[in-house]
Structure formats: structure tokens, C-alpha cells
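As noted in the main text, all predictions were made from sequence alone. Below is one such record, for Nucleotide-binding universal stress UspA family protein.
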Amino acid sequence: MSRSASAGRIVVGYTATKAGRDAVAFASRLGAASGAALHLVLVLPAQKPGIVPPDAGYERLLREQAAGWLREGAAEVPEGVSHRAHVRYGESVAAGLIDTADELGASLIVVGAADGGNRGRHRLGTTTTELVHSSDVPVALVPRGARRVPVETGITRLTAAVGEREGTELLVEATIRLAAATAAPVRLLSLVALDLPAGLDTGAIRTVGQNHAQEVLDEVRSALPSDAEVTAVVAAGDGIEDAVSHLEWEAGEVVIVGSSRLAQPRRLFLGSTAARMLRVVTAPMIVVPRTRSDREGASA
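Prediction:
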């Protein structure tokens, strides 16, 4: 199976900003629900070859400042959630986070929204864009204002957006694993009806969507405890944004989507469906690679 957020370690991309606090807040709720340990990581720029080394005193001061920021971030983690803080160096923040996830055998990278977004909305910046194009670890994109959701809210429901394209099997496996770890109810959102050619009979579209939803529902139910709450809905509307905007979303919801079929093997690539969902969904979104990682099986 692919590594999912239910394994033992979560890397949190931390910055001394509201986005950093949002990432810590969501990761804390996920850690409290699943028992995963948090690793708050602040990435400093690595020295490039040929560049004159900076003054040692300045370098020490910068590292001490970073450590101080991390202490502030760690103070936001609630009691009972295991956590550690790390100052790392990388060619970019995204590269540093991926390298750290590799080193720790982490199952998830969590990052906040870029500056400039509205509360409750997603906004991809340089780091998040690089992550969703290069990470072989699932990435959780956290909307602005997630820090305002109390940790006691927990993870109230998982909504997995499933179709019939390559990678769906791993998306379903990741959903099952996270559901088992958090004991959260699962809502399966079938996207098949939106992928059908235009002009088909409405009744035929409805039948295909319902059949697909039932198939995935049966698969997930068979893999979870008998008392697990699992439901399925069929996306209906004039496109994914319209369909998603008409669904009910909870404060503790988490959305799980697959990466594009055009992505390189074992890499994320935010496809058109996920990108459209980001425009209207106010919940954190976990993007799952479409193929299994070479490092599959790493755990706490």
C-alpha cells in the first residue's frame, strides 16, 4: 500500500507566519486523532557552491532565530501530541521538506496556504506549487485560518474524491488507512458522472455514477470495521466546482484526492480536478501520489 497519513510521522512545513500556525494546527488535529508524531521543520537556504560563505556569527544568529521560531510553533502543539522540531537546509523549502520526509520515513507533508488568500481558502505559493509537482509523499494543503478550528474538533469526516482513472486504487487505500487510524466517518464522492461524454442520457449518467459509487463503497466497507460509517454520493452539476460547492462541508473535514494521471511515476501533480476543487473547498486537502513510492513501507 502507499504511505498514508495514518503512518507514524508527519512533517510540518513551518514558517513564523499565519500559514505556519495553520499547518501546525491542522497537523495537531490529525496527530491527536491518529497518534502520529509531528516533526516541525523550518528550512533555511543551503549554501550554493562558489558562493562566499557567510559570516559564521551571522550563520549562528540565523540558526538561533530559526530555533526560536520553531519553539514558538511547538508551543502551539497541544499536550499529548508527540512532536519534535528541526532546523534543516535545502536548495528550496520544498526540497528541504521532501528530504526530511525521506530521512524520517514520514507519511505526510503538511503546509499552509500562501500569503494573500482569504480566510478559509486555499492559495498555492512557490513552496506548495513545487511540492505538488515533485513530492513522492502525500501532501496536505491547509487553507488560511485553519488555526481557528479547535483541536477538540478532531477529524470529523474524510471525503475521498474517486474516479476510474489510474491511481484511484491507491487513493482508496490511503483513505482506508487514514479512516482506520482516525476512526473518522468516510464519504466517498464519485466523480465518474462528471467524466462521461457530453450528450449521454441523464438516466444513463445517473446509473453509471450510482454503480461506481456502490462499487467503491463496498470495497471500503469490506476493509474497515463493521461499525465504521461509510457513505457515498455522486457528484452532480455543471462541472466539479459546481458539484462540490453544493455539498455540505464540516469544520473538521479532510478531503483526499489523487494526483494527475499525467504526473511522473511516484510523484504528485495537481490535476485539473483537484485544482478546481481547491477553488471552492474550505477543508484541508491531502493529495496522494498516483503510484506507490520506492520507499513504501517506511513507518514509525
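Confidence is low (pLDDT under 50) at residues 1-7, 294-300. Residues 234 and 283 are 19 Å apart (CA to CA). These features were considered when defining construct boundaries for the mutagenesis experiments described in Section 2.9.
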